[in-house]
Amino acid sequence: MKNNELPHWLLQVNYEETNINNLANNQVPIKKVGTIKRKGFIDKTVKEIARRITEEYNAEKIARQPGLLQLINPRIKILSMLYLIIICNLVHSILSLVILNIWVLLVVKLSRIPLYFFIKRVWLVVLLFTGIVVFPSIFNFVRPGSPLIILMDFGHPFHLLVWDFPKEISITKEGIEGALMIITRVGASVSLAKLLAVTTRWNVLLKALRMIFVPQLFVQILEMTHRYIYLLVQTANDMFLAKKCRTIGRTSTKKQRGMIAGSMGSLWLKAYHLSEEIHTAMISRGYSGKMRIMQNLRINLKDWAWAVFVGVIGVLLFGGEKFFV
Which of 107, 314, 134 is nearest to 194 (CA)? Predict the structure, then answer.
């Protein structure tokens, strides 16, 4: 081996622990294909915390983009999204709700929000949780109706424990329509709320809430909660990262539970003492309960144009529902 070359065993990506003789002979047994080393709870925790911090950073970057909704006054934006959410819950046409969801995706694109990011954050959650909730309603023993697909035919009704079943189990037209109605309605409502949160910086959003007469105490609680969440997340990340750097080898399940309990207790004590220190620091710096930001929130022509446009969209969806039913 030349002086400027690395040993063969240092170039191996996957290798197992071996003895000194094997290292000296450049003979290191490679891990068998298909064997996967499971990550410990510390690695998983640090990875999840880092992912959350990255998401918050990316959301702040999106809110600063020169997109369509980022340029709209936050007060107009809040009221317009609230108006559309109300319209969404009053509409009883699946086609109207589908059109609203498509319109939201168009606004997402014009606001320079990555579609993959938005769909993953909204529709993956909606389909997973809402879909599970409404899934039983597509069957005739939950919601009777016109059968579309007959799954089982028993020939006669029967009783099982506390449930009465018809002679056949089928998927009904009314059940499918009801499930689609709920999924599209929840998807549209969550999409509008997410769109508002992603395109508005947090401090500006809080000031806008205060300017539309949301109680000051509620706004202050939101402000401090948001600040504390990410401060404590960063603290937890430092704790687990320090623990990972000081841990050699595997840790037993009993010790892992003890470390988790100790970390929770330490984090709670730190949060308690930090709350007193922050309150004292805020008072000493003249905090009077009012949030002050440099951005001017005056309403201009483009804000009124957006308000009129959203109003027309809502009227068309609600008034044109009879043509879609």
Answer: 107
What pLDDT, in 10s, does the model give residues 75-100?
Answer: 899 999 999 999 999 988 889 999 99
Indicate the length of the chain as a whole number: 325
78 to 75, 85, 197, 303: CA distances (angstroms): 5, 11, 10, 12
State how far the Cα of 121 lies from the Cα of 140, in Å rounded to an integer.
32
Tens-place pLDDT, residues 118-128: 888 888 888 88
- Residue 197 neighbours by CB distance under 10 Å: 14
Q: Rounded to two decimals, what is the model's pTM?
A: 0.69
Two structure tokens written together for 95: 């086609």
Question: What residues have CB less than 8 Å from 208, skipping those under 6 apart?
Answer: 73, 74, 75, 77, 78, 200, 297
Residue boundaries of the structural domains of the chain: 1-37, 41-324
Tokens of 307: 């308000």
